[in-house]
Amino acid sequence: MERFTKIIQEHPFFSDLEPGYVDVLAQFASETSFYAGQTIYQEGETADCFLLIRHGRAAIQIYAQERGPYTIQTVGPGDVLGWSWLFPPYRRRFDARALDLTRAIALDGGRLREEAEADPRLGYALLKRFSKVVVDRLHGATLQILNLSQKRS
Amino acid sequence: MALTTPHRVQRVKKETGDTFTLELAPCPDGSGFFFRPGQFNMLYMAGVGEVPISISGDPREPERIIHTIRAYGTVTNRMRSLKTGDSLGVRGPFGRAWPIEHLIGHDIVLVAGGIGIAPLRPVLYHILAHRGKYGRVVLLYGERTPGDLIYRRQIEQWRGRLDLEVAVTVDSAREDWHGHVGVVTTLVPNVQFDPLNAFALLCGPEIMMHYTIEALKDRGLTEGRIYVSMERHMKCGYGICGRCQLGPVFVCRDGPVFLFSQVKDLFRRREM
Predict the structure, then answer these.
(1) Domain containing B151: what range?
(2) Å from B263 to nearest chain A CA?
(3) Per residue in B86-119, pLDDT tens?
(4) pTM of the model
(5) Nearest Cβ partner of A144 from B114, B171, B179?
(6) Of B33, B65, B93, which one is at a domain's C-terminal end?
(7) Do B202 and B126 have their domain in common?
(8) Minimum Cα–Cα distance from A149: chain B residue
(9) How many domains would you assign to chain B?
(10) What pLDDT does residue A149 have?
(11) Is there a single domain that holds both residue B128 and residue B219?
C-alpha cells in the first residue's frame, strides 16, 4: 500500500490532496495495464473505477453508427481517465482505448463512493477534482464543436 | 503607395480539400520583393475581387512569393481554379510584422490555430535560419481534423529536429490517427519554456487565441510577452478606408501583429 500512497501523492491529479486521504485512496488502488489498441472500457458499461495514467496514452472515443469510432480527446501521463464512477447512473459515457502500452493505477469507484458518503470532506475533495475534469472537457468539446462547425475559413 | 502589379502563378499546391498554396513570381522582371514575417499582400483576381492574404514563404527567398489560402469566400473560391501560368495582381506587403529581432535570446512559443499556421511559417523559417540566436523554440498547431493539417510533410520534418519542439493536435479524428486529440490549449501545459524569458506568438481564430492566452498565463507568461495576429476585413492596406478599424487602431496599418497587452481591451469585444 505504501507504494500506492507514493504514486498517488506524486500524480498531478492528487498532488495537493491531504495525506490522510491519499492513504484512503491507496487502500482501493491496484495496478493495471493495457496493450496498444486494447479497449479500456466501453460506453454503457458500469463505471466502477477510474485510472491515474502513469505511462502511455489513451483515446476517449465516441462511436457513431455511420462513421465508426471517433476520437474526441487523448489523455496521457499525469491525466485521469474516467469520471462516470462519481455521477449517477455510474455508467461509461464514452469508449476508451489504449493508443500505446498504457500503465495506470486503477481506483475502485464503488468503494470510494462509500468512503465519500461517510466523509463529506473527502467527497468534496474528490468532487472538486473530478468536476474540473468534466468542466474542462465540456469546455474543450464546446470549442471543438465551434471549430468543426464553423464555415471553413 | 504600393500599386497592384501583375504576377505569374509559378506553382499551385493543394494542401487539403479546401486549402491551397500559390507560388507567385512578379512579371516581367521576376526580381521579387522583400517582406517581413507576419506581413500580408492584397491579391487581386481580375473581375472577381481583392483579398488580404498573409505571406507564408521564406523571407530569404524574395523571388518566391508564397501564399497559402483557405477557400472561404467568392474570391478565394475562384482562386482555387488558378493554374500555373495564370496571372494575379499583388499589392503589398502591408502591415506590422512579428518582432523577430526583439525576440533574439528568448524562448519562443508559436501557437497556430487552423490557417493561422501560414503567417507563422515565415517566423519559423527565420528562426531556423538563425537558430543559435534563440532559446527553446516550440510550435503548437491545432487543426479541425487530420485531413485539414497543412504543411504536413514539412511539420513532420520539423518534428524530427532536435532543436525544435513541435506538437500537433486535432479536434477530432478517426481511429487511424495516433496523434493528440483536443483543443490546442491542451498542449500548453506540457511544453518546455521559461515563462520569464519567453515570448509567445499566436495566430488563429480569436476565441482560440483567447483561451491560449489564458493557458499561457497559467504557465506564468505575462501579457507583455504575448503577440497576437488579428484578423479583420482589410481592404485598403493603409488605414484609410476604415474597414478594419478596431477601436482606435486599423488592423491593416497598425497590425495585424499586436502586443496583446496593447489590444487586450479590444480583444473579443462584441460590438466591434
Answers:
(1) 107-229
(2) 23
(3) 999 998 888 899 999 999 999 999 999 999 999 9
(4) 0.86
(5) B171
(6) B93
(7) yes
(8) B144
(9) 2
(10) 63
(11) yes
Cβ of B114 and A147 within 8 Å?
yes
CA angle, B198 then B229 then B13, to 5°:
105
Domain chopping of chain A, boundaries? 2-149
Q: What is the pLDDT of residue A153?
A: 38
Q: Are B31 and B7 in contact (CB under 8 A)?
A: no
Report chain B residues whose CB lies below 8 A from the CB of A68.
Answer: 174-175
Q: Are B163 and B190 members of one domain? A: yes
Give the chain A residue nearest B113 (alpha carbons): A147
**Closest approach of A152 to chain B, Cα-based (Å):** 6
Complex ipTM more than 0.95, yes or no: no
Taking the C-alpha atoms of residue B195 and residue B225, their distance in angstroms, rounded to an integer, is: 9
Nearest to B185 by CA among B169, B198, B206: B169
- Test A74 with B179 for CB contact under 8 angstroms: yes
Mean pLDDT for A97-108 is: 97
Q: What pLDDT, in 10s, does the model give residues A38-65?
A: 999 999 999 999 999 999 999 999 988 7
Q: What is the CATH number of the domain that holds B87?
A: 2.40.30.10
The CATH homologous superfamily for domain A2-149 is Jelly Rolls (2.60.120.10)
**B173 within a domain of the structure (yes/no):** yes
Domain boundary among B66, B93, B120: B93
